[in-house]
Specification:
110 residues; Rossmann fold
Length: 110
C-alpha cells in the first residue's frame, strides 16, 4: 500500500531502524521485528548508511520486513554512487516489490 494513502486516513504509527554495524547483530534485529510485528506498525523506516555504506544489510532488512507483512520505507541516497549504481539499487528494490522509498540528499563526502 502507498504510504500516502495511509497518511490521509487515521494516525500513522511508524518505527525507524538502523542496520547494525556488526554483521552478527542483524539476527538480533530480526528477533525485535518478530516482537514488533504484533503491534502492526504502518511502516518501518530503514536508514541508509553514508554513501551507501550498508547497501547489503539495508536491502536484506527491507526484504525481511516485507516477508513479515510490514511495509518498509527504505531510505535512499545518491551521494558517492555512480548513475549505474543508483539504477542498480533502485531496480533491485523495485524487483523486490518495494513501493515506497524515502529519497534523501545525503551527506556529501568529506
Amino acid at each position: 500500500m502507498s504510504l500516502a494513502a495511509r497518511f490521509s486516513a487515521a494516525p500513522v504509527f511508524s518505527l525507524e531502524v538502523f542496520p547494525p554495524k556488526r554483521e552478527g547483530d542483524v539476527e538480533a534485529l530480526y528477533r525485535v521485528f518478530d516482537e514488533l510485528a504484533p503491534l502492526h506498525p504502518d511502516y518501518i523506516s530503514v536508514t541508509y548508511g553514508a554513501g551507501g555504506s550498508n547497501v547489503g544489510p539495508h536491502f536484506e532488512i527491507t526484504k525481511r520486513l516485507m516477508r513479515l507483512g510490514i511495509t518498509p520505507l527504505p531510505h535512499f541516497t545518491c551521494v558517492g554512487q555512480s548513475r549505474d549504481q543508483i539504477r542498480a539499487q533502485l531496480d533491485r528494490l523495485a524487483e523486490a516489490g518495494v513501493k515506497n522509498i524515502l529519497a534523501l540528499r545525503g551527506d556529501p563526502p568529506k
